[in-house]
What we know:
The structure holds two protein chains of two kinds.
Chain A: H1 2-22, E1 27-32, H2 41-55, E2 58-63, H3 69-78, E3 85-88, H4 90-98, H5 112-117, H6 120-123, E4 136-142, E5 144-148, H7 149-154, H8 170-184, E6 189-192, H9 200-209, H10 227-238, E7 242-245, H11 250-259, E8 264-268, H12 270-274, E9 292-295, E10 309-316, H13 322-336, H14 341-348, E11 351-352, E12 356-357, E13 360-361, H15 369-377, H16 392-407, H17 412-428
Parallel strand pairs in A: 1-2, 1-3, 6-7
Antiparallel strand pairs in A: 3-10, 4-10, 4-11, 5-8, 5-9, 12-13
Chain B: H1 2-44, H2 63-67, H3 72-103, H4 108-124, H5 126-137, H6 143-150, H7 167-179, H8 181-192, H9 196-204, H10 209-220, H11 222-237, H12 241-246, H13 256-265, H14 273-301
Helix pairs in contact in B: 3-7, 3-8, 3-11, 3-13, 4-8, 9-10, 11-14, 13-14
Amino acid sequence: MKKLLAMLLVLCLALSLVPMAFAADEEITLWTYPIGKWGDEAAVKELTDAFTADTGIKVKVEYLAYADGDDKVNTAIAAKNTPDLIMEGPERLVANWGANGYLVDLADMLDDQDRAEILSGALTPCINADGVMYEYPLCMTAHCMAINKTAFEEAGALQYVDLENHTWSTENFKKAVAAVYDYFGETVGAVYCAGQGGDQGTRALINNLYGGKFTNDEHTQVTWDDPNNIKAMAELLELEGIEYDASLAGGDEIAKFYQGALKMAFCWNSVQQANPNAAGTGEGLTVTGDEIAYMHFPTESGEPAELCGGIWGFGIFNNGDDAKIAAAKTFIKWMCDSEHTKDAVLTSSFFAARTAAEGTDLSALFDSELMNEYSAKMLPYLGDYYNVIKGWAAIRTEWWNMLQEIGHGADIAETVAAHQAVANAAAAA
Amino acid sequence: MNKKQGLSRALQRREDVAGYLFMAPSLIFFIGFVIIPMFICVGMSLTDATLHNAAPTRFVGLKNFITMWTDKTFLGALKNTFLIVVVSVPVTCLFSLWVASATYKMHNVPLSLFRVIFYLPVVTGSVAVTVVWKWIFDNYSGILNTVLKTSGIIQKNINWLGTPGLTIWCIILILLTTSVGQPIVLYISALGNVDQSLVEAAEVDGANNLQVFWRIKWPQIMPTTLYIIVITTINSFQCFALIQLLTQGGSDTNTVMYYIYYTAFKMTEQAGHFGYANAMGVILAIFIGILSAIQFKLGSEK
């Protein structure tokens, strides 16, 4: 009896090892930030299952949040436990983890055809000054602002807006704010500064009002003390109806705009326009059914603004395992440069970073008037991707703290100078 | 005789081994997750360590400890932390004592009801409590602004969570709601255990309520008070979740605990950030240690 039991145990042990033998197939890990539905487990599983069926490479996915994703990655770097693949933008992949030597150069994945197909505005930020490519871009968008069209109409402010081209001048912006404020008597728009979330909106607003710059052309120093920026900050502070709000971050501002409390939002893009506040209550509509119009940021001339972009793609952590790196490159090729790229881009809900991939046309992916119009009216105005400046995290912190202090009445020139000095110290470190 | 001694020694050894074995699981955790990290923290505070190990870590002596006294953000955070401690510790103790005094003689049902009401924020979890308070304090549609505006007390909305000098008091208020639950329960229990014969004897001798409280009850609940003061002080020094969830250190609400986290995990591009964060942790621990020691000393003298 004992012998029989022992044999059974040995048999169980042997059987338990069988799946391990099959599991010898390559498995890679992917950590992804919530970039459209790349943060949705069901949507990503469809893609990774198809990839596994095609290549035999298994993919284990971990979903990061923007609130603490960086903490997890940084802790993983310290513990030498990084994933094989990570999905995010150049500010993290190129300027941070790439610059610190943790990522693999992907330049060998680019041939002349790829260089021709990938939009230069998307490719350039993925490659550092030395020609090392730390991110293979998949998708992109241009961030914009939005107005509550219904409220503007009620307040007689639509006359200041060119809805055909989605543009307006700084002067008309001020008149529109005044008209809406006079009509409703409440805050029209918020220069939100509770944190760094969605700060591309406040950056683009301040830079575009009078043509100021966020950094120099070389991306080595911030240039917040540009007189055009100072003038913009001062005018926004004076403008009745605009409030520097230290209790709101970008996400909160979107929610307030969606609820109708604010009549304009500076944190907006195509995905928000298609599904405001991710609430599923209708394209281009607030919760109360007011119409939303997406807009360029106002410029002095009334020409289209220089928009901040979002460029997302994949980077590979160098974990010293050539087989894993090769498998990760296969994954990137499959997602970013194959007939499957269309699905990968659609999952992101943003626009393709290239015009075609291995013969598949990606220029008009969406069967949506909104997305096609947005693509034509906004994407061409993607501005300088200065986010790749060194010390980006510290620089963003200085930006929103600076806005808070200005909003609380501190001297603008002195405050800007003080925060710029700290930001530039971070950029130079 | 020798055989007996040998046997008792063996028994003693067995008991010792059994005792240590019972202690082992918590001891391993305590050493692994408290003692060793504590030494690592002190060691790191003397280096320019970063979370990224791209550059080799160097010993920098007391540089981090000197730097922090010229770091305006740290000094601001320290000022706020002390403000929170100085306000919330006495208010928590006095409020808890007042509620406990008013309720401990009640019948079981209302007493339990009060215990539940005051203990609810403690068991609800800081995130949920904070979200509710965020709604209450909302600048645009918060219930507080709505009530104040409707009743004509204010004309324009007040930005409770976005105004320096005001927001820190809102945070202290929220902290109080989450801090008083446990002290109230402890005081109710302590007051219930006060020797009634002494109270009655004092009353017979003509002592008034204040004298009974101050001469009879207060000395007997002193150990509970000491425990509450020490725990509340430590919790107040470690105020983090509220700041993280409500202001991220903005509107002049930064605390040392939040700044440590921010420096350690968000400022990863900054040279020596991890060593600096550890140094701040050491200073915070020293402050907590000194205050706790003073409290114990004063408590034992009393």
